[in-house]
Amino acid sequence: MARLAVVTIGQAPRTDLTPELRYWLPGVELIERGALDEDGPEAIAAMAPKPGDEVLTTRLRDGGNAVIGHQHIVPRVQKILHSLTDVDAIMLACTGEFDDVESPKPLLRPEKMIGPGVAALSAGLAKVGILVPLPEQRNTPDGKYSLLSAEVIVDDASPYVGVNGATVDAGLAAAARRLADAGAELIVADCIGYSQPMRAVLTQESGVPVVLARSIVARLTAELLDTGA
């Protein structure tokens, strides 16, 4: 049986993620590790983004969420990667950039996989909508989607928490409508936190196809591990 390590920038287990990964990766053993597994609320709060730092958001073990700075996470992810010598491959459960990490095993980095896939899927389209979790991340996807010939438009809605009293689904629905009204012909849910039920909300409200970051990565991982999925 193939063994895949799933490394989240938050805390394991990711009960919102692994059931869907198991669907796409039948016959693969999943080993979960989290960059914040050993950290409590005060330590996590101290990792808040500083000016100029890339802003990341992730899910915690108790179902809550955290907003953290990229600079705090990279060394923690690197430490985990160095320890994973008994797996066949490693998946980073984050779409942020991790150019500075090294891995002893094949490393599946979503930010390297999503852009080319979306470029192929969007050939001939005029506008592609990118959905990110936070307003601070609206400028982040620029380089990731440089291969697209379509115009890229970005909106935000968190997969982890509602905003201003709204539920998560209400926030997703509103963002989907905004992207559709702006002319998006395809929507990319650019965070590993966006799930299959969330895709259904986005599709219903926008009326256009929706691509999940997690499904792109999982399906390509299935090819690498030859699961037959």
Write the layout of secondary structure elements.
Layout: E1 2-8, H1 18-24, E2 28-34, H2 41-45, E3 55-59, E4 65-69, H3 70-83, E5 89-93, E6 107-108, H4 110-121, E7 127-132, E8 151-156, H5 168-181, E9 187-189, H6 196-206, E10 210-212, H7 213-225
Helix pairs in contact: 4-7, 5-6
Keywords:
alpha/beta; four-stranded parallel sheet; 7 helices; 2 domains; Rossmann fold; single chain; 229 residues
What does the model show?
Helix 4 (110-121) packs across helix 7 (213-225) and helix 5 (168-181) packs across helix 6 (196-206). The longest helix is centred in the middle third of the chain and has 14 residues, at 70-83. The protein is α/β, with parallel strands linked by helices and 229 residues long. The protein has 2 domains: 2-109 and 215-225, no CATH class; 112-213, Rossmann fold, CATH 3.40.50. A hairpin with a 5-residue loop joins strand 3 and strand 4 (65-69). The chain contains 7 helices and 10 strands. The two termini are 14 Å apart.
Shape: globular
Radius of gyration over C-alpha positions, nearest whole angstrom = 17 Å
Percentage of residues in strands: 15-25%
Determine the N-to-C terminus distance: 14 Å
Domain module tally: 2
Number of helices: 7
What percentage of residues falls in helices of 4 or more residues? 25-40%
In terms of structural class, how would the helical and strand content be classed?
alpha/beta
Strand neighbour order, sheet with most strands: 2-1-5-6
- Helix-strand string: EHEHEEHEEHEEHEHEH
Strand count:
10
Overall pLDDT confidence: 94
Q: Extract low-pLDDT stretches.
A: none
Outline the biggest β-sheet: 4 strands, parallel
Protein name: AroM family protein
InterPro entries: Uncharacterised_AroM
Organism: Kineosporia babensis
Pfam family, one: AroM
